[in-house]
Amino acid sequence: MSIKTVSAFLEGKIEVLEKGVPNHTETVISDVFVFNDFAYKVYKSDSTFFNENFSDLSSKENRFDFTRADFEWNNKLSPEIYLELKGLSVNGVVPTIGDPTDNADELVIVMKKIDMSDQLIKKLHNKTITISDCENIGEQLAKKLSELPLSNSEQTVYSDFLSRHKDIQPWIKTVDKYIPEKLARKYQEFVKEYIEANKDEFNSPNEMGMCADIHADNAIYKNGEFYPIDSYAPKKDWLHGYKFINLYRVATDIYNFLGKEGFNAVIEAYQKSSSEEVPRRHDKFLAIYCQLINWPYQYMLAEKESWRLDIADRYGKAVEEIYSNDNF
Ligand SMILES: Nc1ncnc2c1ncn2[C@@H]1O[C@H](COP(=O)(O)OP(=O)(O)O)[C@@H](O)[C@H]1O
Ligand SMILES: [Mg+2]
Fold first, then answer.
1. Which one-letter DSSP state was computed for residue 261?
2. What is residue 288's predicted lDDT score, i.e. its pLDDT?
């Protein structure tokens, strides 16, 4: 986003829902302007890291396609937060907000402002999540996910897991100063062997579903309500996968703080409000696979937020606990 547009937001010159001067949060892929009641998010075109590894947002066409899909997805899962899509035109002296058509220069996601202290990971960290909250989360997760479209992927669960297994390697490698390669390999081999050992069962497209990037960081939990945030998969390949990955990513993050009791509470409550039988025989495999995504992620975030180091270490202990437990 141009300096002119950032300054216009920061100087309160852009006509938005609310007057005032926002806080500016910049991530690898977006600029977010947070006012008192609303927040505005614009995807960047020039994040080499994201463009090369996830989705190429350098052309306007791709960026608009991605932003529209991202908004629709988040709006479906958390309509209370993801309000509408707007267009931003930057040609005049002051940029203006209008309709989100192809004539706009950028798309802007308009959100209700959220209090990041309600982020699920923070509530787990400060021990304010109870087992009954875990049940709420499982139940609401099942309801929300049932709103998503069916997957039309031609992959089978087997082939999809093999490519997910491949994707894990460079992901963990980015934090090899924290996770020794040998240790990472041990868990990755477990995952690979499990996929091969269950090839017959996994070799079916019927078990595929839409996959959301929902985990303890990408969720708000407030007044007993669970709201996924920013949960559109950054990479097209990850939009589809084994239909229970969503459930296990959340349940596994909960395991890291509330142990097996919390993990079971999420899954059992999900099961009660879902028509599909959750095959509990894959618990150990799915939990370890999910840890291999979220554990390194905590180390990545810890680069900027040092309080996360504790969390990352805790996740690491939990992976080993699950791995070495024959009865998990
Ligand atoms: N609706 C919102 N209210 C308040 N802060 C927000 C809101 N949306 C995003 N933010 C802030 O911006 C950060 C990045 O937002 P996010 O949607 O996760 O962007 P990205 O896709 O770049 O990861 C969040 O971690 C949060 O600090
Ligand atoms: Mg995010």
1. H
2. 98
- Its pTM stands at 0.96
* Residue whose CA is at the smallest distance from ligand 1 atom 13: 25
Pocket of ligand 1 (CB under 6 A): 25, 27, 29-30, 32, 34, 39, 41, 81, 111, 113-114, 116, 230
Residue length of the chain = 328
Report pLDDT digits (tens) over 153-168: 999 999 999 999 999 9
Please tell me the distance from the alpha carbon of residue 291 to that of residue 241, in angstroms, as a whole number: 16
Query: Which token pair is 155?
Result: 């992959």
Which one, of 242, 240, 274, lies nearest residue 142 by Cα? 274
- Partners of 39 in the β-ladder: 34, 111
Pocket test for ligand 1, best of 17, 18, 25 (most atoms within 8 A of CB): 25
Q: Report whether CATH 3.90.1200 matches the domain 118-323.
A: yes
The two tokens of residue 278 are: 């959750």
- The residue ranges of every structural domain in the chain are 3-113, 118-323
- Locus of tokens 């996994």: 202
Ligand 2 centroid – CA 229 distance (Å): 8
Q: Give tens-digit pLDDT for 185-224.
A: 999 999 999 999 999 999 987 899 999 999 999 999 999 9
Q: Which residues contact 293 (CB under 8 A, 6 or more apart)?
A: 168, 171, 215, 249
